[in-house]
Design goal:
With 197 residues, this protein is α+β, with helices and mostly antiparallel strands. The chain contains 5 helices and 7 strands, in the order βααββαβαβαββ. 35% of the residues are buried.
Amino acid sequence: MKGQLTLVVPSMAYGDEIEAYRAEFLQPGAGNMNGSGSLQTLSVPEWLTLLKRDGHPDTCRDVPRSQFLCLRPRDGRVVGMVNIRHQLDEGMLHSGGHIGYSIRPSERNKGYGRQQLVLALDKCRDLGIRRALVCCDSDNEASRRIILSCGGVMEDIRARSDGKPVMRFWIALQGPPSQQGDGEDKDNKLSPGQAGS
């Protein structure tokens, strides 16, 4: 692993790095830009506006979510992105999960994926999530290993809307003592108006 990472809230201060991150994913064979909250199809200013809207229950598209850049402080490089859904609706419960993430293609195989997921799980704890659902495509061996190394327990494999199989893992989280034993369980909470499973 080459240095510590930190999660930061996106802003125009990171505009050039965000553009460079996106450009790498637009290259053939780069894979999916998961955890980017629609960055692939929007300009950076449009994306930042969408993120602000998606962060609030009254204005979000489906469920409230928090977007983070995974930054390497020593050089300011964005090495990954994380999108944390504060709760699960039917679609997220089926094959999306609480956490979406990706690592910049040129920064893969450096141990950053696991470090980024650990940081994302800390953010889930801060939100009061007790069990985090993390999903990955069934052919994504690197992501599967990262999830398992963070305590993931596979529940099942389900088909996404496009038919692609997705592995679903639950990771148990210990909140700070003030949140333990309060009787509230946010692991499978659905957004208003959604049916439970």
